[in-house]
Amino acid sequence: MHVSVVGNADDSVVVTIRGNLDIDNGTTLTTTLDQVLDRPAPRVVVDLSGIEFCDSTGLSALIVGHNRAAEGGGWLRLAAPSEFLGRLLDTVGLTPRLAVYQTVGDALVGRDAD
């Protein structure tokens, strides 16, 4: 798995993940989210377009990140999940709780949530 972080001029952050988000490397995402969420009112978009597989460890990292962002007065939004990941998020009941957007741009401005 590869994770990259890009900060924007408006203090929002885009975390891009490529590969498998599973028990073998879920701590990489958790560690990255811990770092970007360690600021007042964090605004984080997680770009999921490169995720090939996600298990419960990956889902847990996203939920914990979402909760931590909300507790800090900010948000964590998910962007561009594959068809597989979109169905997984629906199946386990996370789409009503986590904001999911079709594109990173939509997630940054908070429009057209799925």
Automatic annotation (TrEMBL):
- Which protein is depicted? Anti-sigma factor antagonist
Q: Which PROSITE patterns does the entry mention?
A: STAS (PS50801)
| UniProt record similarity statement | Belongs to the anti-sigma-factor antagonist family.
The record's annotation in SUPFAM superfamilies points to: SpoIIaa-like
- Quote the Gene3D superfamilies the UniProt record gives: STAS domain
- List each copy of the STAS domain by range: 10-111
InterPro entries for the chain: Anti-sigma_ant, STAS_dom, STAS_dom_sf
